[in-house]
Amino acid sequence: MNDEEKIINDESGEVEMTFLDHLEELRWRIIYSLIGIVIGTIVAWIFIDFFIEQILLLPAKTSGLKLQNLKPFGQLFIYFQVAIIIGLILSFPNVVYQIWKFIAPALKQKEKKYIKWIVIFTTFCFLSGVIFAYYVMLPLTLKFAAQFGSSTIENNFSIDEYFSIILSVILGAGLVFELPMLSFFLSTIGLLTPKFMRKYRRHSIVGIMILSAILSPGTDPVSQLLLAIPLIILYEISILVSKIFQRKSA
After folding, report:
1. End-to-end CA distance of the chain
2. Tell me: the pLDDT tens digits for 141-159?
């Protein structure tokens, strides 16, 4: 394949990439992402005692949960798992940056200059979900789990089940809080419009309330509202993000 067949210039003078070039670019972006995760995992392992004792076990202490290890080397495997998850969280901005750098060739020149702000806003949304899960969702969930059931039965939790709940709730909330960025992406490719989101706002609110009632650890309406309100706010922010993007495109 000669250079004329490999490289094609579009109307703006930019170089278009061939299919093989895209595969090579994807490979390097994955490698860069994995390198960031490995570095984040190493940093997490250096401070693993702090993350375990002062952060992840704190909800159990405040909720009155009694934890126990039932497997040989169970705590060792938990430490490795926590280090990898924290490494992923620490390297999240780099992962987002690599994703958007891969998508960048498909964007217009004026859209590429917003990549830095996209990475910052995406990271902010994810960390907001993590913080919300840690300070709101986890206390409700663990308190409900510790107090539910007969008083004659002692609720003891295995350490692996505890960390499974902790990490899944934290990561799940972080991903749910990416709703505004999902709105931005779908608006970018033309699958979502603010008019469509406003038209089905009432349906979405009803769906959010039903989802909150299912996911809420407590049966009281206060717990359900604590989960529903942030989701409704995120939906409104998503409408605003879609509107701003369409205005800029116009």
Report:
1. 39
2. 777 777 766 667 777 778 8
